Amino acid sequence: MEATSTDTGNNTDLIHQFSFDEDETDSIVVAVSKAVSQVTDTPIEEMPPLQETIDCDALEVVFKSFDVENAPGVGQVQFPFHDCTVRIDTTGTVQVYDEGPRFSPDDSGC
């Protein structure tokens, strides 16, 4: 998983952006845990289990079943975890934001 620090100016709550490649990482669940661990400077074993926040099996199924090459858009999931907001999309991007207002396409929140 490659980390890139991003400050786009319009997304000032974005802390870090990570690239997820399932060929290089065990799973999207591991990628999320590692990303939040790195951003919060908390060892993974000291964080609450991700399963307490989101159905990890369902998350894996969604991302493995999404056909990026034939899909007309980008699939996206976001959820709060360990004082952050995590946004994952089907292009392999994991973004970690400061906890705060939730993001959605229509600005209505999650």
Provide a descriptive summary of the structure in words.
Residues 25-97 form the Halobacterial output domain. By secondary structure, the protein is of the alpha+beta class. The protein has one domain. 21% of the residues lie in helices and 25% in strands. The protein has 2 helices and 5 strands. It has helices at residues 28-40, 56-65; strands at 2-4, 14-19, 76-81, 84-89, 93-98. Strands 1-2-5-4-3 form a 5-stranded antiparallel β-sheet, with helices on one face. It is globular and about 40 Å long. The two termini are 26 Å apart.
Give the secondary structure arrangement, pairings included.
Layout: E1 2-4, E2 14-19, H1 28-40, H2 56-65, E3 76-81, E4 84-89, E5 93-98
Organism: Haladaptatus pallidirubidus
Domain Halobacterial output: 25-97
Protein name: Halobacterial output domain-containing protein
